[in-house]
Amino acid sequence: MTTARTLLQLDATYARDVPGMSLPWTAAEAPAPELLVLNEELAAELGVDPAALRDADGVRFLAGQGLPEEVTPVAQVYAGHQFGMYQPRLGDGRALLLGDVVDVHGRRRDLHLKGSGRTPFARGGDGFAVVGPMLLEYLMGEAMHALGIPTTRALAVVATGTQVRRERMLPGAVLCRVAESHLRVGTFQYAAATGDHDVLRALADHAIARHHPGAADSPQPYLELFRRVCAAQADLVARWMLVGFVHGVMNTDNTTISGETIDYGPCAFMDVVDPGTVFSSIDERGRYAYGNQPAIMRWNLARLGEALVPLLGDDLDATGEALNEVLAAFPDLYERRWAGHMAAKLGIATPDLALGNDLMTLLQAERVDFTTFFRALSTGTARDLVLDRAAFDVWAARRDALLPADRDAVAAAMDRVNPVRIPRNHHVEPALRAAERGDLGPFLRLLDAVTTPFDERPELADLAGPPPTDALPHITYCGT
Predict the structure, then answer these.
(1) What separation in angstroms does the CA of 219 have from each of 223, 225, 325, 334?
(2) Among candidates 120, 115, 151, 121, which has minimal Cα distance to 134?
(3) Which positions ≥6 away from 239 have C-beta within 8 Å?
(4) What pLDDT score was predicted for residue 140?
(5) Is the pTM of this model over 0.85?
(6) Shortest CA distance to 20 belongs to which of 203, 225, 205, 209?
């Protein structure tokens, strides 16, 4: 018989290192678990034979069922600012941390269930999840990974054999998610709010050991932790912006200490360039619009800095000055990361912030499809996508002056960073609806398309372009 112990050598590092920040809990029953999709590449990274996860005991494990006594799942507690409003007690309301495992590369990774039933942090919810949103998280995580953007990833989605009431009855599902950890800014906010500095210090020490071990050698390790988290998030958001990704719910409880993208709820990729792009049905004021994401991340990181204050010494003036110095550097750090990644997209050897910004202004004015334009740059057809050819020519002349001499090599390098395909909104929704009806074919085809984003594949050409001009505005809901 396959067990969790024989599948994976699960540890409980977080629960052991940071007592008081999680509660032992058990997944709700899944009466008829059925594997919908398995990430065989990720399973191999974790050192697991995919065949073992596909057998009956492996599928039960992926739904949190039949765990051996030595494996104790926990629900993590955290706080968070949700749309700017502080919530003192959030936590894993429908999720469980199974434990952590060291993968074949020596990295410690969390295994985490989502949709596994109510916990004490559920706040009135039923604790369950449904097939469509869990497949969305799987799809988006794999698309981001293929684009080279740090992200949590899904190991599997398992249908539970239950029906869950939403706006209608829908098939229930559990997502098994893999992350560098599930530490969030909100985790630190909760620990700080307890007033127990030992708990806060244990949490910070755990975060340093797990994600930023170099900070331990600093004369001010907790300030250095803060600085490194800021750097990781500056790079992450720069990468989001340069593929047109809109997270949609950048609450502090969705901001990781590792610098990974987490919680693919009302997220989507922008088509036409517009800083005001919002997809979330609940973001009525555009707090988390595409163009606001860098500033919101800095705001979230300020909340992390506040939570770390008790660990930074008794001189509050000096502490505040040190934190503000790190935060004041964030915009410049973000711009440098953005300009560096933009240089690769443009094929230029030296970053040029003004060149990149001027291009984005032009694309916004011309309402050009973001993904299509950058791919067309390497083929010399980008000019055909704009109406104001004179403005484009002025910009293109500036770029041409910065291009290396070997234009074939430049084009090949650009094609390695500018995708042909992203998860286009007008394909994602039909694929998820078909999956809810039991037809996984469209989802699996779309998954194949977005996990090979840079490859020209004529058989997938229908998944590459922007939506029809008469398509309705895309609206997402926080279903994950």
Answers:
(1) 9, 11, 17, 25
(2) 115
(3) 147, 148, 149, 150, 337, 341
(4) 98
(5) yes
(6) 203
Residue 47 has what DSSP assignment?
T
253 assigned to active site: yes
- By mean pLDDT, which of 123-132, 255-264, 301-310 is the weakest? 123-132
Residues 112-139, mean pLDDT to the nearest whole number: 95
Nearest to 39 by CA among 157, 145, 147: 157
| Catalytic one of 253, 352, 369, 415 | 253
Pairing of the two strands 268-269 and 245-246 = antiparallel
Question: Which residues lie across from 280 on neighbouring strands?
Answer: 476
Q: What is the mean pLDDT of residues 267-290?
A: 94
Does the CA dihedral 119-120-122-125 come out positive or negative? positive
| DSSP, residue by residue, 274-295 | -TT---BTT-TT-TT-GGGHHH
Pair of tokens at residue 434? 């078909």
Is the CB of residue 243 less than 8 Å from the CB of residue 269?
yes
- pLDDT value at 472 more than 80: no
CA distance 475 to 469: 16
SS3 of 350, please?
Answer: coil
The answer to whether the Cα torsion of 308, 313, 319, 325 is positive or negative is: negative
Q: Which two tokens mark 463?
A: 């998944």
The residues near 335 (Cβ < 8 Å, ≥ 6 apart) are: 353
Beta partners for residue 110, in sequence order: 100, 179
Backbone angles phi, psi at 238, to 5 degrees: -60, -40
| Cα–Cα dist 130/122, whole Å | 16
Provide the strand spans (E) within 18-165. Answer: 22-24, 34-38, 74-76, 80-82, 85-87, 95-102, 108-114, 129-130, 153-165
Helix (H, G, I), strand (E, B) or coil at 189: helix
Whether pLDDT at 212 is above 80: yes
DSSP state of 151: B
Determine the Cα–Cα distance for residues 200 and 214; give it in Å rounded to an integer: 19
CA angle 387, 390, 396 (to 5 degrees): 100
Please tell me what DSSP assigns to residue 173. Answer: E
DSSP 8-state class, residue 215: G
pLDDT at 473 over 90: no
